[in-house]
Amino acid sequence: QSVLTQPPSVSGAPGQRVTISCTGSSSNIGAGSDVHWYQRLPGTAPKLLIYGNSNRPSGVPDRLSGSKSGTSASLAITGLQAEDEADYYCQSYDSLSGGWVFGGGTKVTVL
Amino acid sequence: EVQVLDSGGGLVQPGGSLRLSCAASGFSFSNFAMSWVRQAPGKGLEWVSTISDDGVATYYADSVKGRFSISRDNSKNTVYLQMNSLRAEDTAVYFCAKAAGYTLGAYYFDYWGQGTLVTVSS
Across chain A, what does the average pLDDT equal? Predict the structure, then answer.
């Protein structure tokens, strides 16, 4: 049971928009801790996609965007492409446990 | 170019020990916290441990507290994870990651190693 809750899977056709939610609580996202997003392709290291709720590192396309409100955050992917098929994880800091926490992960499938 | 190279994984019996290493380059190592994150087979990412830039502060997930120990040698640009009293549930790919962010509440992991597999089995 992850501290941050994500849907197990989302899917969309090429070109469509999908969103992945990340729901936390008053001890993490709701306490003001930033939310960050990662992509994990099989056999590769996780890749940082979004940091500080909505900032993209250099090289990450602007088709990806992040937002945060209250105790939740979301990652949006517009213009879905086959290369977006991967597992996505949100991450934040939890003051109750005194450590960093990840969501359970969401598998994105391109139909 | 930032590089993070983790190593030291292998097969170990329950109750055994293993030490992972992570050599970093391409950035001012002594100015950044470093972390270990793992992923068990079929599971999601799990934060394991973080060490501050100067090595004074260390943080552990409850699942490894008292069994794992993180350390660093800034003269060698290397961070270590000493794993003792290993259990079957510690079986995972372990990733070393560079931490970024101005406060604990803002830390994220911007560069990752390729991962090293730890298998705990008799």
Answer: 96
Measure in Å the smallest separation between the Cα of A14 and chain B Cα atoms: 26
Are B87 and B74 spatial neighbours (Cβ–Cβ below 8 Å)? no
Q: Which residue in A has a C-alpha nearest to residue B98's C-alpha? A: A48
Please tell me the distance from the alpha carbon of residue A67 to that of residue A83, in angstroms, as a whole number: 22
Tell me the CA distances in angstroms from B46 to A19, B43, B56, B102, one per residue in order.
22, 9, 23, 22
Average pLDDT value for residue range A24-38: 96
Percent of chain B whose predicted confidence (pLDDT) is above 70: 100
* Closest among B93, B108, B113, B107 to B44, alpha carbons compared: B93
* Residue position matching structure tokens 């996202």: A29
First to last CA, chain B: 40
